[in-house]
Structure prediction request, 214 residues.
Amino acid sequence: MAGALTIWTYDWVPPGKSGPRGFVRDLRLRWACEEAGLDYEVRAVPFRDRGPEHFARQPFGQVPFLEDGEVTLFESGACLLHLARKSEALMPRDAVGEAETLEWTIAALNSIEMVTVPWWFVGLSDPADNPLDGWVRKRLGHLDAVLARREWLAAGRFTVADLLMADVLRIPKVRAAGDFPSLRAYVDRTCARRAFKRAYDGQMAHFAAHDEPA
Prediction:
């Protein structure tokens, strides 16, 4: 596809209820492109054997990374902000709307995901008491209070900040972390968007296509 953005992900990840399918972060980039109507193609690097070419593009051996002509970026947040510069559908062009979108995009990564991911990892060992429980619930409670007063986080409309925040919050264990009705409603309405469904279905089909025959 001439002139298309290229989103790189793994060729395959494990299936199953607790597997990563539907949550690998290339979905964030797919979703952004679908919202903005940006042409993109998806290419893959091996999940099992991550070689020098992969690490040359993503120094931690992760995905996604993005190619846009001569520009190559890794880290989903950086890639999303690059895409947001291409479309007003993702970020307003007025100074106030852009600033609000930027601050909430960074908040999703720093104030929420930075807390929920360590909490989730600690929980994998099934401790009697997760020492990060209080921290997570406090952060989610603050965000729930914000969303009780507004439909979207920034600029009075859907932006890339909502895309990212909803993707952080839709992790099943995060959704089950407490009784936060405004957060639950926010994730539901954000993930009901047609662009999310197209992105999600595309990722699931991509990984399923590389399953070994039963």
Observations:
- The chain has nine helices and four strands.
- The chain has a mean pLDDT of 96.
